[in-house]
Amino acid sequence: MEGSRFGREYVKAREKDRRVSEKYSHAYDAKIKADEAYTAAYEELLQARKEFIDSARAQIDESHNHSAEKSRHDIKVTKPIS
Questions:
Q1: Which of 18, 57, 80, 81 has its CA 20 to 30 A from that of 72?
Q2: What is the pLDDT of residues 26-39, one digit of tens each?
Q3: Rounded CA separation 37/45 (Å)
Q4: Backbone CA torsion sign across 17, 22, 27, 28
C-alpha cells in the first residue's frame, strides 16, 4: 500500500515538474524574443541618434561655411583698393 502511494506521489511530482519545466521553457523563449526586440529597438535608436547628430553637424558646417564665404565677400567688398 505504501509503495503504491509513493508511486502515485512520484508520478504527480514528475508531471508537475514537467509542466513547470515546460512553463519555464516558454517563459525563457519569450524572454529571449523580448531581449532580441529590445536590442533591435535600441540599435535603431542609436542609429537614429547618429543620423540626427550627423545631420546637425552638417547643418552647422554648412552654416559656418556660408558665414565664412559671406565674411570673405564682405572683406573683399569693403577692402580699399590700393
A1: 57
A2: 999 999 999 999 99
A3: 12
A4: positive
What is the amino acid identity at position 22? E
Residue 66 to residue 23: CA distance in whole angstroms: 64
- A 10 A CB-CB count for 26 gives 10
Looking at per-residue pLDDT, the higher value among 82 and 21 belongs to 21
Q: Which three cell numbers stand for residue 54?
A: 550627423
> Is 75 or 7 the better-scoring residue by pLDDT?
7
What letter would DSSP give residue 79? S
State the pTM of this model. 0.57
Residue position matching grid coordinates 567688398: 77
Instruction: Write the DSSP symbol of residue 82.
Output: -
